Amino acid sequence: MPEMRFDGRVAIITGAGGGLGRSHALELARRGGAVLVNDLGGSVDGSGGSSAAQRVVDEITALGGEAVANYDSVATPEGGAAIVQAALDAFGQVDILVNNAGILRDKAFHKMDATMIDAVLDVHLKGALYVGQPAFRLMREKGYGRIINTTSASGLFGNFGQANYGAAKAGLAGLTRVLALEGAGHGIKVNAIAPIAATRMTEDLLGELSARVSPESVSPLVAYLAHQDCAVNGNIYSVAGGRVARIFVAETQGVVLPDITAEAVRDHLTEIDVLDEHGYYHPASLDEETTLIAKALAEAS
Ligand code: NAI
After folding, report:
1. Distance CA 67, CA 58 (A)
2. What spacing in Å lies between the alpha carbon of 265 and ligand 1's midpoint?
3. φ, ψ for residue 177 (rounded to 5)?
4. Cβ atoms 57, 65 nearer than 8 A
5. Which of 186, 116, 180 is nearest to 149 (CA)?
6. CA 2 to ligand 1 center in whole angstroms
7. Residue 284 CA from chain centroid, whole number
8. 68-111 per-position pLDDT tens digit
9. For this structure, is 165 an active site residue?
10. Rounded distance, CA 118 to CA 200, Å?
11. Spatial CB neighbours of 263, under 8 Å, sequence gap ≥ 6
12. CA distances from 99 to 87, 128, 256, 275 (A)
């Protein structure tokens, strides 16, 4: 089978000045793609700025690849438009968008203030909409595109202290499903990853697992989903340390309650809730999912 190449393709990768985004940028550039490396270069909580994006561009060009830095924030409509325009100015087209930029403002919900809610929703969820919309319009006109959103087990399974982040990440799963439907007739495929990787964002959180879950073990899935040959649309994948698993929203068989009352719901709850768990796991939290990933990686080594 031929190598999966990106010659002639242009990718925008947001938040690519470090961590997972840098790794995705290097992977696509190594395979021949031209990359707009977007990152305002702030700290984990989103404050400040730096030239991290240019450092990644320098790494890519030193390896013979093609890349341009961009410092606009994904968190406003103007920023989103400027990011897409920067890719057009540099390379004349946009084929791939990886919505990866992210920040953390963790706090137990009862102590979380409005700025912590707004900042996290603005970067993760609105950022994907603000960059995504001008990119999607171009892709629609051209009849071709690939979008990869970055969701998280935090939003899909739950994680203490991340009401803002989990809500934003679950929103990205919904965005993925909707855009997959809207893009399907126009050659556009939209999928999402829920990664676990050792980056500055997860410093001190992963313990022994951090040695097994490099950003470089996530990016091959992004490359697959970004490629012309990608066979899936609207899917969400858990990816960590080389383990890839599909995450999906499902529904139980349910019951029909013709004379439905609150008491009838109470009395039939077992039938309503019953899961037939064959061939998949149903983690109750990010912690439970991380434990099963660690087990799978340990068993495979
Ligand atoms: P990171 O902190 O190294 O990368 C995030 C990047 O986004 C940073 O370089 C930051 O400067 C950039 N960024 C923040 N706000 C921005 C804005 N307004 N505009 C442009 N760029 C902005 O962290 P990491 O781990 O590489 O995270 C990448 C993505 O993966 C994030 O969306 C994160 O939520 C997600 N993720 C990471 C997990 C992990 O285990 N590392 C787990 C689940 C999701």
Report:
1. 8
2. 42
3. -65, -40
4. no
5. 180
6. 32
7. 20
8. 999 999 999 999 999 999 999 999 999 999 999 999 999 999 99
9. yes
10. 22
11. none
12. 14, 6, 40, 33
Ligand 1 pocket test: which of 37, 74, 148, 201 has the largest number of ligand atoms within 8 Å of its C-beta? 201
16 alpha carbon to ligand 1 midpoint, in Å? 8
> Does residue 149 sit in helix, strand or coil?
strand
Does the pTM exceed 0.90?
Answer: yes
Q: Which of the 8 DSSP states describes residue 184?
A: G
- Do residues 117 and 107 touch, judged by C-beta distance below 8 A? no
Class level of CATH domain 10-247: alpha beta
CA 162/CA 104 separation, integer angstroms: 8
Query: What was the pLDDT predicted at 279?
Result: 84
Q: CB–CB of 86/39 below 8 Å? A: no
Q: Which residue among 131, 199, 290 has the greatest number of ligand 1 atoms within 8 angstroms of its CB, and so is best to mutate?
A: 199
pLDDT < 70: residue spans in the chain: none
Domain boundaries, the chain: 10-247, 262-300
Is any ligand 1 atom within 6 A of the Cβ of residue 103?
yes
Beta partners for residue 97, in sequence order: 12, 147
pLDDT digits (tens, 9 = 90+) for 189-213: 999 999 999 999 998 889 999 999 9
User: Which 3-state string (H, E, C) describes 245-296?
Assistant: EEECCCCCCCCCCCCCCHHHHHHHHHHHHCCCCCCCCCCCCHHHHHHHHHHH
Which amino acid belongs to residue 11?
A
